[in-house]
Amino acid sequence: MAQMLAERDSGVRVMRQWLDELQSNITSELAGYIEHDRTAFQDVVTEIVKQEVRGVTELLANNQESHHPRLDSGNHTCLPDRPADCLGYRRQGFITSGVFNIYPVSCCEPVSVWCDMTTGGGGWVVVFARVPQVEQENFARPWNDYKNGFGNPYREFWIGNDILHLMTDNVPSILRVDAENFAGIRKFGEWRSFRVANETDLYNLTIGNYWPSSSLGDDLARNNRKVFTTVDRDNDDDSGNCAEKRTGGGWWYTSCSDCNPTSVMANTDNYLTSATWKSWNKNDPKFTSLRWMQLKIRPKDSQSRARMCIGQ
Ligand SMILES: [Ca+2]
């Protein structure tokens, strides 16, 4: 690889030398024939030559880029710039929220997520989002859609239960919920224990260590040790299917749930057609409609999990 790069650098140098000579020849030819306005002609020619040099340099640079080794799962190169989560990017100095490619599964399988880089120290992977928009994302989806994930990380989004499992199984994680009601008031809750089991265990949820300073009440206490239910996979404690009863969204229902994050969203202040949170007011619990919501996770120990792929 080093030899290839050296050869290409040498190629760039030869090309530049040739173009410099070309510029010199053209300039002296023009100087001999055109006495008037010579400077203007020189400027034009110089600019043309500069553009040619720039184009050739970029072409060669892109060509080099295309020869970077492609990664595969068995033959990795050390790439500390491929973080497994948003905290890894935060540790690299990224302080503006946006969509990033994270590598929670392997060096070769990026997952595009929204990274919240500002809230509570930043470094959060937004795993689920509800956003008011003209046409809401469809959350009334079957098991496999929730397994694999769906939506748009810029707007409404479900990261996928398999990835949730891989990100939280061996990494003690914090769950944070940020929510906004139709009055524009935002509240948050934190649970310092969050883990999702694998598909064989029906994505059994471990949720706990509710942080008492949270402004949202603990609507997730009832979901602890509950498994996932979708319209086509009824695993809940209810005699019916809670996904069907709650407008189709998948969740870790009991019978059924104190919150309803995956509801249809009609973008009106109506708890029957909105995502809801029951203990919006801790001392006066009643279903409260939400117009915006994010669930986000971060490693509990605040350690970056920048993925180091070591090999060749
Ligand atoms: Ca049931």
TrEMBL record:
Task: Give the originating organism.
Answer: Cherax quadricarinatus (Australian red claw crayfish)
- In the UniProt record, the signal sequence range is none
A GO CC annotation recorded here is: extracellular space
Question: Domain Fibrinogen C-terminal spans what residues?
Answer: 77-301
UniProt protein name:
Fibrinogen C-terminal domain-containing protein
